[in-house]
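Whiteboard transcription, Tuesday session. T.W. wrote the structure tokens on the left side:
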């Protein structure tokens, strides 16, 4: 695989990421329109397309209000949610001056404010960045990655995470997590409604509407999940390139990725949406680099491909 240049990679990844992010809200509106369309087909009153459009338009404001409310709550509670899901705790300077020196030197060289530094009490090797603004940006490192990487390798990993912050990747990924969370919540709520008798009611009582809504919510969850995974994979390539440019040592990151791939599993991480924030998926190990159907559901590109690009930098 040929490395095609940092600026070209930045342009291509940013363009694709913007396109993917725009598609998230479009999914909401398309599926809502389809809900009224399929509902009209199953009703005794044969509604016209104009009537379907009217129902859709009158519902849009409620959808927007609901999504904004969900976003507001998730936006302000995301840090606590992520720290709880990863068992990430603040790392004091006197606990590890080496890590602080590496982070601060890189931040000075790029003109960035120093993010908060957290540690995950796990002997496996992994790291992630999170946050939506200067007050919440943070880098979390596992105890294993701090102890098992040399200074050049650890610096390359930290530069990778700082690139995520600099490029606002973390904010973008958190937005995608929130969108997928909406579909997941709707799917679960509607499934429970069907499970406890909602779907067994007659069409006149709304049972048919619940079934249609459930099926469309599941479709929305699957599509938004695929978009989220694609967004996460593209951003990893960009962060690798940013680390290589920042440290001028792409082989150091390649070496770090090899060590990480041997043991990336963080026991505390149980949620797939949080897993995409890490430098490598903390739930599964990278085994294959060839394309397959399962690769569409991968949160990260294969480490072997990432290493190939770094070695050709």
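and on the right, the sequence the group agreed on:
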């Amino acid at each position: 695989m040929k490395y095609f240049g940092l600026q070209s990679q930045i342009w291509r990844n940013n363009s694709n990421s913007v396109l993917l992010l725009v598609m998230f809200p479009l999914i909401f509106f398309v599926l809502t329109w389809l809900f009224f369309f399929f509902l009209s087909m199953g009703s005794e009153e044969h509604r016209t397309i104009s009537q379907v459009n009217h129902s859709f338009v009158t519902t849009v404001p409620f959808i927007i209000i609901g999504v904004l409310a969900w976003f507001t709550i998730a936006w302000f509670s995301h840090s606590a949610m992520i720290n709880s899901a990863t068992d990430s705790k603040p790392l004091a300077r006197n606990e590890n001056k080496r890590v602080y020196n590496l982070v601060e030197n890189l931040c000075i060289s790029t003109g960035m404010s120093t993010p908060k530094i957290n540690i995950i009490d796990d002997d496996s090797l992994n790291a992630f960045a999170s946050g939506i603004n200067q007050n919440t940006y943070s880098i979390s490192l596992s105890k294993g990655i701090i102890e098992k990487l040399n200074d050049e390798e650890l610096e390359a990993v930290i530069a990778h995470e700082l690139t995520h912050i600099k490029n606002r990747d973390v904010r973008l990924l958190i937005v995608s997590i929130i969108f997928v969370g909406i579909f997941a919540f709707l799917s679960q709520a509607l499934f429970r409604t069907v499970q406890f008798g909602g779907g067994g009611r007659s069409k006149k009582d709304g049972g048919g509407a619940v079934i249609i809504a459930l099926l469309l919510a599941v479709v929305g969850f699957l599509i938004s999940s695929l978009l989220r995974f694609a967004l996460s994979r593209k951003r990893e390539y960009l962060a690798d390139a940013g680390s290589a440019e920042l440290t001028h040592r792409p082989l150091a990151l390649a070496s770090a990725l090899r060590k990480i791939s041997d043991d990336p599993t963080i026991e505390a991480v149980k949620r797939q949406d949080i897993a995409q924030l890490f430098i490598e998926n903390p739930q599964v190990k990278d085994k294959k680099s060839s394309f397959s159907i399962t690769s569409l559901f991968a949160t990260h590109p294969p480490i072997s491909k990432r290493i190939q690009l770094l070695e050709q930098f």
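Someone added at the bottom: The longest helix spans residues 207-247.
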